Amino acid sequence: MAGAAANAAVTEASGREEFGLAPVGVPVTEAGRDGGVRSGEADECLRRSDSHFNAGRQLYFEGDLAGARREFDQAVDALLRVPDSLPDHGRIERRLDEICNLIYRFDVEKLGAGQKADEKKVAFDEAPIDAISRMTFGVDEKLAPKLQSELNQITSGIPLELAGPVPGLIRFFSTTDSGRRTLLAGFRRAGRYRELIQRILAEEGVPQELIYLAQAESGFLPRAVSNKNAVGMWQFIADTGATYQLKRSATYDDRLDPEKATRAAARFLKALHERYGDWYLAMAAYNCGAGTVDRAVERTGYADYWELLRRHSLPRETANYVPVIIAMTIIAKNPQDYGLDNIAMDAPLEYDSIRVSAATHLDLIADATLQPVSVIRELNPSLLGRLAPAGFQVHVPKGMGSTTQDALETVPADSRHAWRLHHVSIGDTLAGIAKSYHLTPERIVAVNGSSDTLEAGDTLLIPALDPAVPAKALAARHFGKGRYSLARVQSSRSSLAQRGGHVAVSRRVSTHVSSQALHRKAEIHTASLRR
User: Fold this and answer.
1) Closest to 328 measured CA to CA, from 189, 219, 195, 230
2) Which of 183, 436, 455, 487 has its CA 20 to 30 A from that of 305?
3) Which long-range contacts (CB under 8 A, 24 or more apart) does 9-13 make?
4) What is the CA radius of gyration of the chain?
5) Would you call 249 exposed, middle or buried from its count of C-beta atoms within 10 A (0-12, 13-18, 19+)?
6) Which residues contact 178 (CB under 8 A, 6 or more apart)?
7) Can you name the residues that pair with 458 across neighbouring β-strands?
8) H or E stretch including 421?
9) Rounded to whole angstroms, what are the CA distances from 205 to 244, 245, 270, 298, 465?
10) Which residues 6+ apart lie within 8 Å of 4 measured at CB?
11) Which helix (H) or strand (E) holds 99?
């Protein structure tokens, strides 16, 4: 973890993008994970499945759950019918996993309904390096000739030496159940962040192999936490994170942001390498602190990692730390020798970023993006709760930045921390909608203006329950004098009451976010739904 010892010393493209899936036509990601093989038959099946999924999602938010289920089933069936003999069948399997996961989320969460009301803080994961650092790995002389042969055929930006416990760690990761589970979990999860990390490492001018430092530290878990209170994918402690502009507050922690933390880690490692002129000592200092390494060098007179290891001059966890990174790098560079060449990596996480101008609840962002709230939370691991503070840069599914921003702007700025957007479904009644949010129908009518009908696809503003503010005051406060008169609000209430407040069956879809809230259609959509 970054600077742990120092802390102790001071006591401390279209439709697929919309659903958080990688686009069908991404040659680097898809082809790269299947050895460059792509088939037209697989492409067509993926397009057909996506078409059904898009249609099912549209029906879902119009309230036609039976129709949505039919389309979702056809999306899955289109993939299940693909022959196993296709050379790029791995693409089909990955898409099937992604779609099934999203369908499950829609079923369970229904835009946040499945979330626990008392869920305040983000869950953290145990950092894998904690367990590995406590193990003992002997020297494995039998593996040396084979490993040396492998090393002679690869190139690396950091030195790869078969010294100390490195061969024993390679055996641990490649042959034992626990070691292989740890290795495979990290390799699969690396797919989400590999392109982002590689880009930043290149921009900062440090070796690409340092990506395996993140695998050793966290297994690419953005919310990993160590027993020394280092957190995030790159395991920064608070002081070191602050040095590299990773900010913290009661609502967010930049150390948990994969992009910001990767940038900070690259700069920190570069500074350590400039200090020591050696990548092994730089990585050791990243783990236990530069002060610890400096004292070990001064005490022994050796500025050599392996010599410091032989003299037991470094902490025990650091004795395994650098060898773990070396072992993972050697295995990754020889995937065919370790059964990793056919491992399906997770699809890259792709997103747009928007800056919220007011404190905004993640449930409201989920409403605006027509996504399960868990998707929004996964894209924003640095948020410690469910509220994005004013000025925070929120990640939303790729292709949905502008439409999400437009939708949020329709909610009064000082109410985005608590208000919701409700997408009207077939069979909804005003009374039923109000009851589900613990409100009165009058409160909903007061903030939504002057329409006398509801239709499937409409979007309603749902005010927070605040008994201290009368409905009339809310209407005057948020819509201004003359725009929505109180007489028209009362007329709307009367008309809705006479009609029973039932929603008309409609498939009408608008092409923009209207300024009139009651008829603000659910097409806060991307191009795939406007074909």
Assistant:
1) 219
2) 183
3) 9/289, 9/291, 10/239, 12/229, 12/237, 12/238, 12/239, 13/398, 13/399
4) 27
5) exposed
6) none
7) 521
8) strand 420-423
9) 17, 19, 8, 29, 52
10) 226, 228, 230, 235, 237, 287, 288, 289
11) helix 89-109
Query: What pLDDT, on the 0 to 100 scale, is given for residue 191?
Result: 93
Q: Is 236 helix (H, G, I), strand (E, B) or coil?
A: strand
Residue 120 CB-density burial (10 A; 0-12 exposed, 13-18 middle, 19+ buried): exposed
Q: Which residue has the tokens 């990585």?
A: 283
Q: In whole angstroms, how far apart are CA 242 and each of 81, 121, 202, 388?
A: 52, 22, 23, 20
Q: Quote the tokens at residue 40.
A: 């037209």
Amino acid at 251: T
pTM of full prediction above 0.90: no
Closest C-alpha to 251, from 344, 128, 390, 130: 390
Residue 352 is predicted with a pLDDT of 96
* Residue 448 vs residue 60, higher pLDDT: 448
Q: How far apart are CA 14 and CA 234, in angstroms?
A: 32
Tokens for 72?
């979702």
Find the angle CA(449)-CA(527)-CA(257) to the nearest 5 degrees. Answer: 85
The two tokens of residue 197 are 């990390």
Which string of b and e fits 402-433 if b means at least 16 CB within 10 Å? ebbbebbebbbeebbbbbbbbbbbbebbbbeb
Question: What's the mean pLDDT when you consider all of the chain?
Answer: 77
